[in-house]
Amino acid sequence: MNEVPAKRPTAEDIERVFLGPPARHTRHQVAAAAGVPSELAARIWRALGFAAPADDAIAFSDADVAALRRIGVLLEEGLLDEKIVIRMARALGQTTARLAQWQTEIVLDHLADTGEPVADADIARLLQTAERLLPDFEKLLVHVWRVQLAAAVNRLLAHDELAGGTPSPRVTLAVGFADLVSFTRYSRELDESALTELVEGFEARASDVIAARGGRLVKALGDEVLFTAQDPPAAAAIALELADAVRERHDGPDVRVGLAYGPILPVMGDVFGPTVNLAARLTAIARPGTIIIDTGMAEGLAGVPGLEICKIRRRPARGFGVIQPYVLRAVPADREQAGETGEQPAQASARQAR
């Protein structure tokens, strides 16, 4: 590898590496060259998260013309309408913005001296590393995107089959919230490096467990993750394995999980609806290291071997009135071998779970 210059890279250096040939069009020129109305082009750029340049600013390249022209062709052929284009552009912009920020931080953290301010040489090394990685990573990005698309369509197909072939914007899924207990206290006590390790470790464990069990990580919010699963048994397996994985880290906070099963409304990769809200309420009442489930989950897990479902006292939940929660546990191996089902009378279960 050539010796990296210590001087700080300029904006021109960065654009050369990531964007190629320099900009040479104004916003009206790029729209005209692509055959797309200026007003629509401006809406597309905004949806993608790009800054709005002045009318006379040279801010767009030939690559921007080509990208906008592709969108214009999709509109002309009637494959997509303007509303769908804007929604898809917004999804693309928000997702790639987070991805780019995340990857930049990971690579910079790897290249920079731990605990030291970022130096010009660190930025220069980052740029040189990116230049070498870009061609391969661009292909990897497209491949992973295609795999995720295939998985998303397969999930829709499975939902449709479960619903008897009746099309509906709502689907029935198990929804889970898992959060780290006392995260605020830990965040005050840990230094920046340790806090980053804690958050990234939790997200990594959650992502691995959810993917291994066929679930989907909807979003991660530092100390909390939201996931979905096809059915109650899959969600229960995720929750139990995640609790075990977090428990193995003896020096960190414990995790608590809330699970609910019912109809949800998917919107731009996120999920909404009463089932999602109920899962969040169940998480809030869960004690450290416990998994609390709703009646839909409890009914869906009836008869599943290796699980113990304990009814606990009813309690109020904002927006739902008084709800009946249950504690979900794994039956210890020695009891399972002895043939115990884990089913207990409601009163005894309630006393044990309190």
From TrEMBL:
Residue span, Guanylate cyclase domain: 174-283
Comp. bias intervals (Polar residues): 344-354
Region: Disordered, residue numbers: 334-354
Domain of life: Bacteria
Listed Pfam families: Ad_Cy_reg, Guanylate_cyc
Name assigned to this protein: Adenylate cyclase
Family that this chain belongs to: Belongs to the adenylyl cyclase class-3 family.
